[in-house]
């Protein structure tokens, strides 16, 4: 079997859905991995049931795959992401996968947040995997901020970390870039000082204080809540306040936070 297919993991997630939609237009066979037993009726995509964390159902799904775009992550049980990455790499080696494109997060090497440590460990696994790889770090997705503020606004006060800047980047633009990278060679382009395979970060057009993002969201959603910036002590808080969540020199995204709010949140 010729290995020419693109596999998207996490294909039902916020980013994975966007990646899958764009992969359909590449002209290549497209596969998607889900833990669901009932597979979508999707004539443009070959869906497979598999569990990365358990390592089940992967060999059939990966057979014939040249490139994996790895979007799967379980933020609620993020410790499962490392065994899942191990299983992905093992299945990829068995199947003869040539290229893994991984999405990661700006600032994970400078902020000692537990989920970020897991993401960084995943990057290091990829670097030493022996498989061709490309790693893209992006800033915050508006859809995830929307979900977070939706939960926080259920309380009388919306709490945000003080002195923390964010730089939302449209998840659709990140999906465009991931598919572009998947169609190229591993680590295509000039790598930054992070090692071969890591491509320049992708950040949104504007840097905002976290409290400004919260107030903008509340205004768009028509909710009256007080926004309370809270000082986070220690290295974690210092990391947030250092600007590590942003990449002003990589403000290449086009779609703004205000445009997202107008389209998806405003009433």
What's the short story on this structure?
The protein is α/β, with parallel strands linked by helices and 267 residues long.
**Which structural class do you get from the secondary structure elements?**
alpha/beta
Share of β-strand residues: 15-25%
Major sheet attributes: 6 strands, parallel
Rg over alpha carbons: 19 Å
Overall shape? globular
Any idea what the CATH architecture of the domain at 5-139 and 170-198 is? 3-Layer(aba) Sandwich
Unreliable spans: none
**Subunit arrangement of the protein:** single chain
At the first level of CATH, the class of the domain at 5-139 and 170-198 is Alpha Beta
Which properties best describe this structure?
about 20% strand, six-stranded parallel sheet, 9 helices, globular, Rossmann fold, alpha/beta
Fold and architecture overview:
The protein has 267 residues and is α/β, with parallel strands linked by helices. It has helices spanning 14-23, 58-62, 81-95, 114-127, 142-152, 171-182, 210-221, 234-241, 257-264; strands at residues 5-9, 30-34, 46-49, 65-70, 99-105, 132-138, 157-161, 165-166, 208-209, 226-230. It has a six-stranded parallel beta sheet, with helices on both faces. The model has no long low-confidence stretch (mean pLDDT 94). The longest helix has 15 residues, at 81-95. It has a domain at 5-139 and 170-198: NAD(P)-binding Rossmann-like Domain (Rossmann fold, 3-Layer(aba) Sandwich). InterPro entries: HCF244-like, NAD(P)-bd_dom, NAD(P)-bd_dom_sf. Residues 10-140 form the NAD(P)-binding domain. One of its GO terms (cellular component) is photosystem II. Keywords: Photosynthesis, Photosystem II.
